[in-house]
Amino acid sequence: MKAQPTKTNTRKVLIIEDEGDLCLLLNLLLDGQDMEIDHVPSLAKAGEYLLQEQPALVLLDNRLPDGFGIDYIGDIKKQHPATKVIMISGLDAAARDVALDNGADDFIEKPFTKADIFRSVKKLMN
């Protein structure tokens, strides 16, 4: 029987993504990494979540139904300064600079590879 991770070594990860397929892919990639993964489809739901929880990591899409993730990075950092934010976007290179200037800890451009996700998460979570 496999031992369940304890609260001390399980890190909470929030995925803010409105595309179900991409969210499922991210869940599958991060499964088995001693992470408790939650998902919300909008900035409004993210706000509700962040009032109750403090994730170690947020994977943040840029284009969401109720706004741009790039504009929400500062809100996450203001509420939870220790939370790491990875911005995921298919926009041009200028979005990378703005995301990092707004407080993102890393930026992953779509389309991304499994290695891109692992490299970024490992860099920020270790």
TrEMBL record:
The modification 4-aspartylphosphate is found at residue 61. It comes from the Bacteria. The keyword Phosphoprotein applies. Residues 12-125 form the Response regulatory domain. It holds the Pfam family Response_reg. InterPro entries: Bact_response_regulator (IPR050595), CheY-like_superfamily (IPR011006), Sig_transdc_resp-reg_receiver (IPR001789). This is Response regulator receiver domain-containing protein.
